[in-house]
Amino acid sequence: MNNNKRLPHTPPDTRHRIRELAYFCMIYESDLVCRQSTQMDRRTFAILCHLLRNVAGLSSTEIVDVEEMVAMFLHVLAHDVKNRVIQREFNCLGALDETYIKVNVPAGDRPTFRTRKGEIATNFLGVCDTKGDFVYVLSGWEGSAADSRILRDALSRKNGLQVPKGYYYLCDAGYPNAEGFLAPYRGQRYHLQEWRGDANAPTNAKEYFNMKHSSARMEMTYCEDVDDEDEGDSTYATTTASEDIQYIETTNEWSQWRDDLTELMFTEWQLLNA
Fold it and tell me: Any idea where the DUF8040 domain is (predicted)?
C-alpha cells in the first residue's frame, strides 16, 4: 500500500513571485537584512557571487539564479536551519514586545502610569532580531499607553524603528495584524503551557499557527527580561533602497497572506503526523 502523501502547494507562478520578492528584498534592499541573513553586507555578497559565477563556474538554472543559490546556502550555514525554514523565515526580522518597568512618579502623574495590573510603571518597547539581540528600544511611555500607540510612535520618529516593506516582526495580540507586524489570531489558545500534553494538541489551523507563533516569539524575545541593559543609542544603522513602513495599516491582502500561511503550515503538520 502506498502511503506517500503530497503537500498541497501554492500555484507555481505565485510561489515564484513570493520567492523572487523575498530574495530581492534580502539581497538588495538593506545591509541590515543582508547581514542578518547571510552574515555579509551587500557589496561582499555581490563580490562572492561574481567570483562563484566567473571563476568557479557556478551558473543559474531556469528557476533559480546564482544570487538565490548563494543566499540560500549562506543562510543555512549562518543559522543552521532546514530548507523548510528557508522557505518561510527569510522575511521575518525578529519579534517585538512590551515590558513594564516600575518607576516612582509624582502623585499627580500616577493615573497615567498605572498599568492594567495596577502597578506604576513605564511601558518599554523592545525589538529583537531572530537571534534574540536587541535592535531597537523605546522607553518613557506611560504604563497606561496602548501598545499600538507606542508602536506608531516608534515608526514615526526620525531615527525610529525601521521595517523594510516585504518584511515583518512577530508581535502579540496587543498589536494589530498589519503590514510589517504578524500577530496571532485572537480568540484562540496562544500561550505555550496551553499546548502541553497530547490531549492539548492543536485542533485547527489557527490554533496551530498560534502555537508556532508563540514558540518562535518567545525564543526571540526571551532577552527582554530587562535588568542592566546598556542604555546607549538604541537605534541601528541601516541602508535601504526602498521605502520603510511608516505607519500601521491593516489590509485585506495582509490578512489573507496570514490565512494562507496558516492553512499551509497546518496541512504540512497534519500530513507529517498522519
Answer: 33-93
